[in-house]
Amino acid sequence: MYAQMIKSEATSDDPEKLAAFQARIDAGEKIEPKDWMPEGYRKTLIRQIGQHAHSEIVGQLPEGNWITRAPSLERKAILLAKVQDEAGHGLYLYCAAETLGVSRDEMTEMLLDGRMKYSSIFAYPTLTWADMGAVGWLVDGAAIMNQVPLQRTSFGPYARAMIRICKEESFHQRQGFDIMMKMCSGTPAQKQMAQDALNRFWFPALMMFGPSDAESTHSAQSMAWKIKMNSNDELRQKFVDQTVPQAEYLGLTVPDDTLAWNEEKGGYDFAEPDWDEFFEVLKGNGPCSVDRIATRKKAWDDGQWVREGLMAHAAKKRAAKVAAE
Ligand code: 3HC
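YS: structure for the whole thing
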């Protein structure tokens, strides 16, 4: 179905309809699934929402890895709840994408065969308990920075899904910062673990916002359609400005010698991440890329019988209903 949609893309956009559609967007109206929309808009949403959904699901892996090793029952319960929240986020987002005419099965197949991506951050390993703090603080912090504006995105189901997701992500960020506070007020070895986690996650967290505006292929059109509300560099700057004082509060050092407050721009000057590394990660060459997709594939294959069982049950119920009518 998705493939057919892409084929029809070139023929379906007549200029009058396009202008009327853009006027609706400019007036701040929400676009709903049954409304007319340009095929490019539909495709971009499927790509972005699908990639976002995959990120929530794949994002469970680096943290799920620590549930059995959390240092107390309380930390275990909190981490378990957080990882379950991420599953929920993935499901809302898959549902939002499905309203655009793509199935969850198709999106998963596209993730597994490399046609769709997930966030680069999850191609990195979580090596110590302090990484759970750094992930919550920095990764969920970066996610919120990107996702709060998406509550005002033009596509109704996406905007509405983001409201609940953002509330939960805020809790995730706070729990990460709380782990960091505990580690930083602990023994010198614990504080060093926190510093090490910040050292490893700082630049990958900056990469989450995507390539620089000059390199971003989709930003201009996506911002005109209000699929994205801010450019990649704008959000990266806001994230740095918000996070540096938090690192100072923790007594940690951001691993960037060039970091300096710039009075004139009212924000920090900071070093760019290694973009070559970023593009390698996108090609599937991150430290955990192969493992992440293999794990998702195994879960997908292992769940085949459950999906078949549910479909058979639904078909049986439908047949019984028809017979009773
Ligand atoms: N990881 C992987 N791919 C990325 C990326 C990243 N961090 N940043 C950019 N890319 C890809 C884009 O998908 C695009 O590739 P494609 O054409 O093959 O799809 C290419 O790099 C060029 O980048 P653009 O800037 O042109 O792409 P976008 O306009 O789509 O912007 C984005 C990228 C800012 C990530 C945007 O897609 C977005 O805002 N997405 C919604 C939010 C999202 O996906 N968040 C995931 C974060 S993790 C998360 O939420 C889990 C939580 O539990 C922490």
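YS: worth flagging: Confidence is low (pLDDT under 50) at residues 1-11.
IM: good catch. Also The beta strands are 260-262, 267-269.
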